[in-house]
Structure formats: structure tokens, C-alpha cells
Design goal:
Layout lengths: L3 E7 L5 E8 L3 H11 L8 E7 L3 H10 L10 E3 L3 H5 L20 E4 L6 E4 L4 E4 L2 E4 H11 L15 E3 L2 E2 L8
Antiparallel strand pairs: 1-2, 1-3, 2-4, 5-6, 5-9, 6-7, 7-8, 9-10
């Protein structure tokens, strides 16, 4: 049975977070949609934290307690660092290639230039030209190398690599 979920997303704009609610059945699709399409012309969204709650009323009460930080009638909150002390929810586990069924030795393709291939060497690491990188660090480097520097220093690396033609962020989790 689906449970209510409260989530926090950070973006490329310092001091701005998106707080939202959905349920466990819709969470992954909603987060992917926000990352891909943005929200109110703000892009660069990344998952920060989420929490399953017992009732939607619990989430509503929490959002109401943060109303002073809310930007109009949107789901954006102008808060900066203090909100993270107010929201003591556990961080979502880091991205894990193994949970997608990807193994050491598998080859990933860089979406920014499909001729660039990297090899998986750990649950969160790949190797490129003999050097180990996280997906995020390598995506930033590769965009600079191909003359398309990414305008933000925070990047969701998994969104920029593909396995067998499918972006990592679109792959379902494996058991």
C-alpha cells in the first residue's frame, strides 16, 4: 500500500529548495519529471532528502510550519542553510549502479558525446582514461573537454550517462 512521502529537492539557485509531497508509488516518476523538466523555469533539481510519513496530515502540518519561508503559492522555499536543521530527515541513499543491475566491467556511454565510453569499476565509480571518477565529477569534466562546460558545478551525473542506450536515471531498480 502506498504511503505518503515528503521530499526536499535542491536546485542550481542558492537558498532555494522545493518541498513537496507525493506517495511511494509515484515518488520516482515525480522526481524524474522534476529533474528532466524543471519547476517554474528553475532547473538543476537534485534529490536531497525524503521521508515516508504515516499520514498526509503529518506532511501538511510540517509544510505549514515552514510557511514563512514559502515563495508565494509555489512549492519553492527561500531558506538557505537553516532549513536543513529544521528538516532532520534521512538523506536518500546515494546513486548505486549495482542496484540497476550494472556490474563492474560494464560500459556506459556519455550522453553529451556518444563516442565517449567509460567502464564501471564500483557501485558509484567509473574509469575513464585510466582514472577513477564519480559520475558527477566525470560528467562535469567531459562537458568541459568537449567545449560545452556545464553552467552549474552541481550535476546529477547519472542523468548524463547511458547503459545500453537508456539514461541511468530512467533504468528501473533491480532486486
Amino acid at each position: 500500500m502506498a504511503k505518503p512521502v515528503f521530499y526536499i529537492m535542491t536546485c542550481s539557485v542558492p537558498g532555494v529548495v522545493k518541498l513537496g509531497k507525493t506517495d511511494t508509488d509515484k515518488y520516482d516518476a515525480e522526481i524524474k519529471k522534476l529533474i528532466k523538466n524543471g519547476y517554474l523555469d528553475v532547473f538543476g533539481w537534485q534529490e536531497y532528502r525524503y521521508r515516508e510519513c504515516d499520514t498526509e496530515a503529518e506532511i501538511d502540518a510540517h509544510l505549514l510550519s515552514l510557511e514563512q519561508y514559502r515563495w508565494g503559492s509555489t512549492e519553492l522555499y527561500m531558506v538557505g542553510d537553516p532549513i536543513f536543521a529544521i528538516l532532520p530527515y534521512p538523506m536518500k541513499p546515494p546513486f548505486n549502479l549495482y542496484k540497476l543491475g550494472i556490474k563492474n566491467g560494464d560500459v556506459l556511454t556519455f550522453a553529451g558525446d556518444p563516442s565517449i565510453k567509460v567502464t564501471v569499476v564500483g557501485e558509484r565509480e567509473v574509469e575513464y582514461n585510466g582514472i577513477k571518477y564519480t559520475l558527477s565529477a566525470l560528467a562535469l569534466k567531459l562537458y568541459e573537454d568537449i567545449g560545452r562546460p556545464f553552467k552549474h558545478r552541481i550535476i546529477r551525473g547519472a542523468a548524463h550517462f547511458m547503459h545500453q542506450g537508456v539514461r541511468l536515471t530512467e533504468l528501473p531498480l533491480k532486486n
